[in-house]
Amino acid sequence: MSTALVITSSALGEASVSSQLVEETVARLRSHDPALRVITRDLGHEPVPHLTIDSATALRGGEPVNEAQAAAQSLSDGLIAELKAADTLIIGAPMYNFGMPSTLKAWFDHVLRAGITFSYSESGPEGLLKGKRALVIESRGGLYSEGPAQVMDSQEPHLRNLLGFMGITDVTFLRAEKLAFGPEARDQAIAAVRQQITETIGEACRKAA
User: Taking the model in full, what pTM does it have?
Assistant: First the structure.
């Protein structure tokens, strides 16, 4: 049975474009695999705590020395277990001030752990979560995948680097852009991503068959 870890990170709840498109992605996956197991993390509704001195210390390894450190290590272990169990990672990532939401960054801060999801060697760092694929659905008010604003995109390159550092290099980015360019541009952008979702999942399922 395949397992998908579904992560949404918008603060807008049901009004979130990225979260809506993530739901449609899961529904499309289920249409190909009715037995799909889905693990869900809504970071907008239930955020992972940002790092503190205790959590940052605990996630570097070693035995916790207080309750705060033990809680941080336990949370990290649980998040990593969900990630390891998944064949497919689906991330909804709106662009906030040219980057990912801080809630999503906090999730990465808890799952990027030396010796568990990546390791260091004489030849450099190596990701330990190879063999997974990721679909990242980005929502953006402007146009950042090309043109003069592309240099301001601190969202997609950062996400690609964090996933790749853990060994997840089979990553597809689906971008709903120009959402703030008016109703027509917004509708066209969402429709285009819906079509890309259908095509991307259909192709992946054909390869897996």
Answer: 0.94
